[in-house]
């Protein structure tokens, strides 16, 4: 049984990683998509199999299009190499905003190669580990509307969107927001009598203004009761361990799925990501609590380079190989973003391989934890470099 999923949670969250739970290693192995069976471990010997984690934006695709050689690179891991070896790989992306299945399906169509949902980790996937704690809480989900269904699919029973909070009290944000052209829906939850238990930023918010206002209201409320407002200074005090008097309970938990300040799409210059939103949110928070150095009270930061995401990915990789995570040798993170992909790989004992098809531009600084094992022109060159190093090409 994988370590991180309790039987109850396993029962609740089945989709993307259902093979993680069922039966013996051999039957789990049989249930795996082809590209996930590291043959090396079959012989029960302690030969470890290398494994790959591919970033998506700027490595496999850029905007709506597959990057050249991306399909060829993956085919080499599906046995098209001199030793016909199948090497396990996952896609580990900070993007999100829709289900793993739909992302995997779209990427498979762009590449013309089947990527299974079980091989796909988006920025919010590791938030599944929050379900045991917040299953029955009312959780405010920030991100595109599709995040509501995704949170429910993960196992959160009571999910509330920013639009629904605003529909409950239009004065909360008296400016036009996306969807205002549609008739106002009755708010599904009576927020006067139902406190919000946690805030999950599941993907880059489409409406920064609305979401900054609503998150502020909740962080400054009494334990998630949106009809209340605490003194911001005492809230800030409740967060600092050195407070003298009893400043009351800290704000409700705030989770973020990724902190990418920039990401690469069709635009010639990288775009602001969720990290840009977090920077704006922190600016307002610091002014609100009258402390320029104040940090956002984020309970858990997910997404590359954070450890919770790499731990989750390690388990998914491990459970794709007979013998589990102990049978996985070096894990190669192929990424375009030194700040998330390479810093994360270095901090989590993986090998970082940086490509020049996305955020990173030749000559950009690669110091302080962002130094990759090698910089190569694209994803196929990255796979070749690893297969050469692992002796698979001879
Ligand atoms: O943060 C934005 C996200 O789209 C970056 O995706 O695949 O480069 O981690 P990826
Ligand atoms: Mg990228």
Structure notes:
The structure is a single chain. Residues 1-43 have low confidence and may be disordered. Helix content is 31%, strand content 14%. The longest helix is centred in the last third of the chain and has 15 residues, at 274-288. It starts with 6 loop residues before the first helix and ends in a 5-residue tail after the last helix. It has 394 residues and is α/β, with parallel strands linked by helices. It has two domains: 7-123 and 306-389, Rossmann fold (3-Layer(aba) Sandwich); 126-301, Rossmann fold, CATH 3.40.50.1000. The protein binds SN-glycerol-3-phosphate and magnesium ion. SN-glycerol-3-phosphate binds at residues 55-58, 93-95, 258, 260, 263, 273-274, 337. InterPro entries: HAD-like_sf (IPR036412), HAD-SF_hydro_IIA (IPR006357), HAD-SF_hydro_IIA_CECR5 (IPR006353), HAD_sf (IPR023214).
The main β sheet shows up as: 6 strands, parallel
CATH architecture of the largest domain: 3-Layer(aba) Sandwich
The CATH class assignment of the largest domain is Alpha Beta
Q: Would you list the SSEs in sequence order as H and E?
A: HHEEEHEHEHEHEHEHHEEEHEHEHEEH
In the sheet with the most strands, the strands line up as 5-4-1-13-14-15
Structural class: alpha/beta
Mean pLDDT: 87
The CATH homologous superfamily of the largest domain is called HAD superfamily/HAD-like
List the keywords.
31% helix, binds magnesium ion, five-stranded parallel β-sheet, alpha/beta, binds SN-glycerol-3-phosphate, 394 residues, elongated, Rossmann fold, 13 helices, six-stranded parallel β-sheet, HAD-SF_hydro_IIA_CECR5, disordered N terminus
